[in-house]
Structure formats: structure tokens, C-alpha cells
Amino acid sequence: MSMGLILMELRKIWRPLPLAGIALVCAFAALFMIGSSPLLVHGGAPAGDDDPIAESTVYSLTVETARPELERQYRELVPKADAQIAAVPAAKAKGITDMAGFELWNARFPRTPSDEDVALIDTLTGLPSVQAVSRISALLESTGDSPEDFASQIRSRAASYLGFGDVPRSPLPPLAKRRVERIAAAYGSRTMLDLNIESTVTDSAPIVFTAIGVSVIILIAPILTRDRQLHIRQLQWASKTGRNALGAQVIAVGVSCAALSLAIAGLWAAWAANALRPCLGISLISYNPPLIWFDWTVGQYLAAVVLTAALAGTASGLLAGWIIRARPNMIRMLIAAIPVAVAIGVVLDRVIGRQPFTFANPMAKFITIPGVEPLALLAVLLLAAVLWAVSVRRLGGKELLE
Fold first, then answer.
1. Which of 96, 282, 360, 391 could disulfide-link 355, Cβ–Cβ 3.0 to 4.6 Å?
2. 391, 258, 347, 224: CA torsion to nearest 10
3. What parts of the sequence cross the membrane (predicted)?
4. Do the beta carbons of residue 373 and residue 363 sit within 8 Å?
């Protein structure tokens, strides 16, 4: 099997029409990601909201060093908020003269408020100092739990993620229990990483996986059918050496799927890394951590998802190529390829790409081990390789039938 033959097969795969279809799929995927992950667009705060990137970095990297600064700012900002509230005539008419009075009134806010009450709360919550006090107060509350409370929260979330239906899983599997204990032991080194940073990766990952799965099928599905239509297969069948050319096609398909998957995942990772650049070196073990299996930073998690997506694309493409194979014409090829693409897209979106490497991934309920997603994909890749190896071997040993 010569390199020239493989290069020829690669040129047959990378054609303008499939690439145009892939570009369209990626464009739709980008639109979905913009809707699900606003930070990818804004590179900071969504319009009018707090800035999760700034809050993850400006107060220091760990909770223990950030809290004194948060408490100092809170003490300085409360008098300013009191003065701004006291300057609002409608608030004074309601007996609200400071931040404490506003919080008490807000806690008793009626379920069916009057237009006057709605206008007043909009005015007060729009005051800059009130917004700053509310934001810092929320951070102090979120980071103020004791080591025991933090460990209990982690255990409860783990049991909920790994449970079935609404029933928490108890006791936890051994590996999950050890991981929960390790996260709980990191109480003193928790970072200030906002949950929205991790969500930017996990919310867009299923879209990336699905786009890759569909794209590799668009790229490789036509090749064997096109050969059959152009009578290339009949020429290959004329000799045993020609029939062995299928092996070169399989290698070309695998290389093409891997290259396309890495390209799409790499573009997404570059986009996300640029948006989250200040946070890439921060540990994911924060005051409100995702239950992730590994002690990764944001950048390491992003890289792991990219490699897993590339593995998903390679495995999906080889398996789909074996299922579709050569059809009499392109219509029959599409009839076979569309259900395969839908099935692979659903699995990648709902299972493999759903919060990868965390307890929240659906497979973790059944196979509770670290890295179950790449292990499952390696099993699929091995299955596809075996199926293709058997097909190539059988075809190479057959006598001329046509």
C-alpha cells in the first residue's frame, strides 16, 4: 500500500461540495453556541450583567485571600448605597432610607405588586452602589460556607448526579467517593472561578461534538458511492492488488476524519480561549465547583474536550463509513447516511458531549469511572477498525465476480 495511493484517496475525499456543506453545518453550530454561551460573544459580561471573568480574577485567585478584600469593599460601599437610596423620594415615602431598609422591604415584596412598587424596585436596583453591594453580598454568601458545609454540598450534588430519576445514589461508588473527598479537601485552595466560565465550555461542547459528527459523515459518505458510480470499483475488482486499494481508502477516511475533527474543535477552542483568556490558568475547583474527575485548569479542560471531540469524530466517521459503504447511487447513499448522521448526532449531543469528564455526564450513572467518555469512544474506534479490517481482508481474498 503506497503513500501515493493514500494521497490520491485523500484528494478524492476533500472536494468542494462536501466542504461547503461542512461550512454550513459549522455556521449553524456557531449560531447555537452564541445563543447558549454569551461569553463567547462578549468576552466578558453579557450586556448589562455582571462580569464573570472579572469576578473570577479581580478579587485574587483563592477564596481565602479574596474574602478580606470583599468584606472591605462591602463596608465601604454600604454607606454610599445608603446615601443613594435616601436620595430617592419614592423610597423615602415608603420608609426606605438605607440598604438594610431596602433589603427588608424587598424580602416582604408582595406577590402582586402595584405599578408604583415595581417602578420603585427598578429604580433602587438600578442604583450603581446598590448593584455593587448586592453583587459583593452574593459573593460573600456563596464563599462563606464552612468546610463541613462545603463537603456536604459536594456529596449531595454527587449523589444527585449519579442517581436515577429523583433518587440520589447512596452509597457513592468507590471512585466517586474518593473524588468527592479530594474536592472537599481542597477547601482551603478553592478559586474564585465563576460557574459561568465552566458553563461556557460545557454548554457549547455538545454542539461542537454534534457538528463534528455530522461534518465527518458529510465529508466521507460520498466517496465509496462515487467510486461505484464512476466504475472505479469495477476496475479495482479486476485484480487482487486493486481490491486491496480499499485499505488505502480506509486509512484516508480515518486521517480525514481526525483532521477535520481537530480543525473544527480547534477553531472552537481558539474562540473560547480568546473569550476566557484571563481565566485559562485558574483551577476549576472553585467555591462552587463542577464535579469534575480531574484537577484541571480551565485551559486544560478545554484541551481535553478538544482531544475527545477529535476522537469522537474519528470513531464516528469510520463507523458511519462502514455502515454506509458503497450504494448504487447518491439518493440511496443519502437514504442510508441521513439516519446514521442523526443517530450519531444524538449520541454525541446527549451522551458523549454532555458535560464531559464530570459526574453530570449521563454515562457516569452507569460507568462511574474517570474519563469514561474517551474510553467509550476508543471502544467504538476499535469496533470500527475491526469491522473495516475484516471487510478489507475478505475483499482482498475474493475472486473476480464482476
1. 360
2. -40
3. 205-225, 246-271, 301-324, 331-352, 372-390
4. yes
Q: Where are the domains of the chain?
A: 3-44+191-397, 63-142, 147-189
Name, in order, each residue with C-beta under 8 angstroms of 326's C-beta and a sequence gap of 6 or more.
Answer: 224, 225, 227, 228, 233
Position 287, amino acid: Y
**Residues contacting residue 184 through CB under 8 Å, at least 6 positions apart:** 147, 150, 151, 154, 155
User: CA dist 14 to 4, 6, 135, 170, 255, Å?
Assistant: 16, 13, 52, 51, 11
* Alpha-carbon separation of residue 186 from 59, 147, 183, 189 (angstroms): 19, 9, 5, 5
User: Which residues contact residue 373 at a Cβ distance below 8 angstroms, ignoring those fewer than 6 apart?
Assistant: 308, 352, 356, 357, 361, 363
Contacts from 157-162 at CB under 8 Å and sequence distance 24+?
A: 157/291, 157/359, 158/291, 158/359, 161/291, 161/358, 161/359, 161/360, 161/364, 161/365, 162/359, 162/364, 162/365, 162/368
Q: pLDDT tens digits for 327-378?
A: 778 888 889 999 999 999 999 999 999 999 999 999 999 999 999 999 999 9
- The radius of gyration of the chain's CA atoms, rounded to the nearest angstrom, is 28
pTM value?
0.88
Which run of H or E residues covers position 126?
A: none
Question: First vs last Cα of the chain: how many Å apart?
Answer: 23
